[in-house]
Request: fold
Amino acid sequence: MTSKEIAKIIGAYLLLVLIGWLSIYATGHSVDEARSIFDLGSRAGKQFLWICISLCVSAIILFVIKAYLWEVLSGPAYLMILILLALTIVFGSEVNGSKSWFSIGPIRFQPCELSKISTSLLLAHVLRNKAFGSGSLKNLALVLSVIAIPAILILAEKETGSTLVYMGYIFVLYREGLSGMWIMLLLLMVVLFILSIRFPLWVAFSVLSILLLSYYVFIRIHGAKSFKLRRKLRLLCLSVMLLGSITILSTDYVFHNILKAHQKQRVEVLLGLKEDPMGAGYNVNQSLIAIGSGGLKGKGYLEGTQTTYGFVPEQSTDFIFCTIGEEFGFIGCFILISLFVFLIGNILKLAESSREPFNRIYGYCIASCLFMHMLINIGMTIKLMPVIGIPLPFISYGGTSLLSFSIMLFIFLALIKQEKRYF
Reply:
């Protein structure tokens, strides 16, 4: 392992930031009134300012701040962000139905973006000091509370997209010894939730019963020979049945009382419960038109009609991916996704090579957050996920998002630099 690995990650980061900046300029480009990409009155100009700030902060993190301080400060930082999240619920500004913005004079930011950094740091600190893989319920409860508390506060701000990102931490827990059964259980709950929205409740109960019966029979035949194992198996199946039943029966309440009206409509459109091409389904339909019209090679930079004439709402933020699809086609989309895969893969590679548990766990936290953001954002632009409003890391317009992801990434690089004694 050499410093080239860190250089690769920084190179991928800079390329993604550059692609994002150029794409933001494309969304604000007008044929009749061309503006400079550096014009601070435009979104591209403001993003350039945030890019400069992010690069300066990243350099300070990498070369000035002592990396060991990040673990020392993990607890206080986590507590401070929790306080900010709570204050945002009471005093925050509402934007697009989410009360997740905090305004101080002319500066406006989202504490929920910063919470991913503090949660990742504290989670890495807690996991390195607890025998998580030992099966202790006390340790499991502690770890889950670190993740759940900020997630609940963010949900109270009606920032559903950011809340879903916290589900990605289950991959971190799996790497640190959590049974794969928990991931399967989480997937089962998601499937039951969707089935309960799309079909009558008896369909979801039937699927749950068939799956549990099949699992019980399979394990009895192939593994559970002793009385103790059979007893554990029965308790497990009963517990899953109880949890599944609660999920099914609570779906109606969650769907109508927790999700916002426009989110409910988008889920209904996604699941085929209603057609609303000029309402809830408009954003996605226009996004699909933009991406589809790009073809293999795209229409060319600043040549996209859907982009230039503003047919796709929120195109510089939530739907930035369709700009790349229209102007650079399938090849451009493939290159962008490949860059993300390359970045995440190299983060995991560096994390696995680390001898420090804190560095490894924190690296997995970053990779999980990036993966969830990429999955949800791109998924909603191509109608595989409901439109819930979540940025594409380093690409979407937004100073808080860019700065937060930059800080998160460069803290990890600083930790690895300290351990490996690079440059």
